[in-house]
Amino acid sequence: MQNVLSTILSSLNSSSNWQSELREFLESNGTNLLSDEAGSYLVSSLLADLKIRRDSARNSGINVIGINELISSLDGYVGSELIRNYIFKNSEQTGIVYLDENKIVGAILVSSV
């Protein structure tokens, strides 16, 4: 977990709201990586899934931090490119971090309560 977490934290800057919130979430006591194995998506499938999640969350009144920024970021990728993701969780939030081969593409944070 430490290697994945170190890689993610080193590529964050605090220039955007979602990156600041992600850093705070990842550094908080009790946040754990759920699996050392990354999930993977084709950009085209991930975009379709995220748009459904965004609309469902909006209709349910659930705040999903970072989802609009992630969708905008993914719009710049080719649909056949692979994006990896890691899921982190603590007692208050679940976070999913999405990465291409070189950097963080985006992340979403959802309250667990």
Summarize the structure in words.
By secondary structure, the protein is an alpha+beta fold. The chain has four helices and six strands; from the N terminus they run ααββαβαβββ. The chain has helices at residues 2-10, 17-27, 43-60, 67-74; strands at 32-33, 39-42, 64-65, 82-89, 93-99, 104-111. Strands 1, 2, 3, 4, 5 and 6 form a six-stranded antiparallel sheet that branches. It starts with a helix and ends with a strand. The mean pLDDT is 89.
Helices and strands, with pairings:
Blueprint: H1 2-10, H2 17-27, E1 32-33, E2 39-42, H3 43-60, E3 64-65, H4 67-74, E4 82-89, E5 93-99, E6 104-111
Antiparallel strand pairs: 1-4, 2-4, 3-6, 4-5, 5-6
Poorly predicted runs of 5 or more residues: none
* Backbone CA Rg: 13 Å
Euclidean distance between termini CA atoms:
25 Å
Helix percentage range? 40-55%
Largest sheet: 6 strands, antiparallel
The sequence of SSEs as H and E is: HHEEHEHEEE
Mean pLDDT: 89
Question: Tags for this entry?
Answer:
113 residues, 41% helix, globular
Summed up:
The chain is an alpha+beta fold and 113 residues long. 41% of the residues lie in helices and 27% in strands. Helix 3 runs antiparallel to helix 4.
